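Practice problem: predict the structure.
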Amino acid sequence: MTDTPAPLAIDGPAAPPRSNGELVFAEPWEGRAFGMAVTLHAAGAFAWERFQAALIRRIAAWEQGHPEGECWSYYTQWLAALEDVLTADGTVAEGEVAARASALAERPAGYDHADHDDRTGHGHGHGH
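Answer:
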């Protein structure tokens, strides 16, 4: 395990979106994807340089040939680069991410946030 934080690029193709120097996440999943990569790096799952190189490749590929009308999403490329790094070394099996994403997509909207009766003692901190 490494205690060294991930060296985030301030500028250049791998630099995450910022506003007034602060990281910007348009959707909750983007922050989770960011945190997942940083946490896996901190746990020693991969060298940050490998991830940055994969991210730069993903961004370049998108710039060279994205489908017409497809909107730019930095964190879509971030997540794809993370998958590239983790499948390349066998941490995650090829196709495992797609299979899990498909299973999650089949769940009904609000699946994880159903109104629960607090007497069940599930206590997951919604503050009801």
